[in-house]
Amino acid sequence: MLRKPKVLMSDKCSIKTNHRRPLTIRRKYSLQEPPSVVGGDRFIPTRRNMRNTFVIGDGIDTCKRNGLEANNDHKSKTAVLRGPNGRIKQQYRRFMASTLYELPITTVDHDGLTKRMLNFGSTYHRIVARPHDLISSSLDYLRVLEDVQLIGDTSRSGHYKYRHIDSAPFRSLEAPGILNDFYTNTICWSKDNILAVALGTGLYFWHPSCESGQEFLRMNDERNPITSVSFCEDVPELLAVGTANGEVVVYNIFTGQCFYSVSEHLGMQVGTIAWNKTTLTTGDKSGQLVQHDLRFDRNIVADYTGGHLQEICALKWNPDGRYLASGSNCNTVCIWDNAMPRNNRNSVNPLTFFSGHQSAVKAIDWCPGRRGLIATGGGYADQTVKVWDCNSGHVKSSVNTGAQVSGLHWSRTNLFELLSSHGYPSNHMSLWKLGNDPDLEHVKKVPGFGGRILSMTVSHEEETVATAGSDEQLRLWHIFRSCTKSPSIGLFSTPTFGVPQIR
Prior knowledge:
The chain is mainly beta. The chain folds into two domains: 49-127, no CATH class; 171-477, YVTN repeat-like/Quinoprotein amine dehydrogenase (Methylamine Dehydrogenase, Chain H, 7 Propeller), CATH 2.130.10. The chain has four helices and 29 strands. The longest helix is centred in the first third of the chain and has 16 residues, at 86-101.
């Protein structure tokens, strides 16, 4: 049973938000495969051999553009070609032509042209849509835009900008009673910069403007600790809470009221929760995955079956909300298509699965700079981070980290940077960058943990990384930016979450 939560408001510290918008879901569209045309009595030059002045953008920052492109003067054109962005423009044309026309990159020159201007006979292969691919035809054309980001990012061009990263947290908080369970996810940042922390049967909120945390919720049953928390990104005042006995409740943190509840997991620990706009996906100890639409009461949108036989410990939706990745204790990662047809029971089978790990997969994150790329991390018996290409199902990169992987996060501000958190035996964080192959190249190791890292979460603006350790310490880090000024509250100031310290 859940005790009525306290309202998150006080005279000492108040947290406000301007996000007050109704629950909505955007309509999805799909492209149909064009009709096949057989034969013909005329020669028509192939579009792949046209000089492409692509209208969907040239992939270069608008602030770097100058008026030379509009100038027909030959010297101006030469300056643009040989200027700071000339190489990027040339590579962009090659990537665009290679992606749109499905040509090997080696057969396309810097102008986006093939060697032959006119093609006769059977050398031309008609490009058709591939609706059954993981990355569907309706999304294929966007892949070239991801490649443009790949070109423009310094980490992929051989000129990676190394920066100073502190080897110590800028703040440390006592977190007594945190659940020492590898399969749980007990910390989460909201879009309004509120950090939710589950400490045993209690749920606390912390904000940078507050000296200490505030209790929001306390479970009546001491044998029913909180095992997962997750904020809704689109409606940041909604927080989903999962427990060891299978209760899942969605709260409005500013009114303290229950907004929605899920009863499909009763008796089974819910260790992970993921939001996709206004739908809620939950996974339990039996391997069951359920998706609910919060606009309707008790409405199961999808029941994901046939994927996992053991405990679900990781759920992650890709950036556009089309594909769901799930990791479990059966050492597999399943990819689910949100647009797949459902039967009478709304049952959905996995689109594909990866079985390359030798231990439980708790760490999962989609690469924001390259569509279809996903990173996964294995437990103590595996200790590897793998980058998969969901289009081909192949491993693009695999590195042995020397420790169990408990969390992964692709940076949204420094594209192709990957942060990993680790447990036994080394208890550290590592920063990686995606190379050209793509290979993961090690950038920085961050030590300083007194126990294994159980969970890791990153604030919405990536200002702060929070880690929860088995040593009952919540540490706050500056990883994705340089810290030039030390905060007034440092490592040796250890405020608590308002509960008695166990030590």
